[in-house]
Amino acid sequence: MREAPIGVFDSGVGGLSVLAEIQRLLPNETLLYVADCGNVPYGEKTPEFIRQRCSVMAGFFQEQGAKALVLACNTATVAGVADLRRDYPDWPIVGMEPAVKPAAAATRSGVVGVLATTGTLQSAKFAALLDRFATDVQVITQPCPGLVELIENGDLHSPALRQLLSSYVAPLLAAGCDTIILGCTHYPFLKPLLRQMIPEDISLIDTGAAVARQLQRLLSARDLLAEGSAREAQFWTSSDPVHFGHILPILWKGLGVVDRFGR
After folding, report:
1. Which residue among 112, 210, 242, 263 sits deepest, i.e. has the most Cβ atoms within 10 Å of its Cβ?
2. In the Cβ-directed half-sphere of 44, how many Cα atoms lie within 13 Å?
């Protein structure tokens, strides 16, 4: 069971930022990743649709013999993680959530910005995070329609992307934010571009590394950490595998095989 793989999924390629953190912390693990690119972005879908997709992914990874499941998507976590934990009570399941707590602790100005999808920002889970951890700080939220779609096409640098991102960051800077939460797993790929737009003393916070640490804790507690050498990662996509294969080297530094996910 220790050598069983870990299943990771996202609405698209964004979860690769989380997958990279998992591989960095747990290099001996075998990783399976499904990019549900045929349904991206989840942030514009109904909660019922997202829950159905989460159920499909969980069933697939169960069939693959995965020893743990990671929802590398904030929107999927909001909509579906509670149901998955109810349906699979003995399965280690790790979800995402915007890094409100560390951002509230890090801010010096008392003003925190959040870049996220509409679905995440409108969720009850996000509202609960604010109530729990951000009562003493001002939180400026910024929905970012269009960013996910550009990143899905491997666009991390174009003038169109730069203009769109700048329009989302400007209100946060104007409000005095000194800490910005990257509340979507796609957005860490934009860190180099963001660094060109914001002052050096502004912190960018995402939760990929924290998710990897939580996964390590859960596996360790169950004596499920792998000991041997890992195989190359395996990828599936619900869209065109050829297109995904072209985007993958831009966002993923390792090797991997890409297959079609037909569910």
Report:
1. 112
2. 9
Same domain, 156 and 249: no
List average pLDDT for each run of 10 residues in the chain, which is 263 residues long. Answer: 95 96 94 96 89 98 98 93 97 94 94 92 88 93 94 95 98 97 95 96 95 97 90 92 93 87 88
DSSP structure string for 187-249: GGGGHHHHHHHS-TT-EEE-SHHHHHHHHHHHHHHTT----SPPPPEEEEESS-HHHHHHHHH
One domain for residues 174 and 88 = no
The count of structural domains within the chain is: 2
The catalytic position among 37, 54, 73, 144 is: 73
Active site residue: 37, 54, 144, 184, which one?
A: 184
* Measured CA distances, 29 to 22, 42, 254 (Å): 9, 27, 13
Pair 115, 209: CB distance under 8 Å: no
Q: Is 37 a catalytic residue?
A: no
Whether 1 is in a domain gets the answer no
**Predicted local distance difference test score (pLDDT) of residue 41:** 87
Q: Residue 240: its pLDDT value, please? A: 93
The edge-to-edge listing of strands for the beta sheet with 233-237 is 93-94, 68-71, 6-10, 31-35, 233-237, 256-260
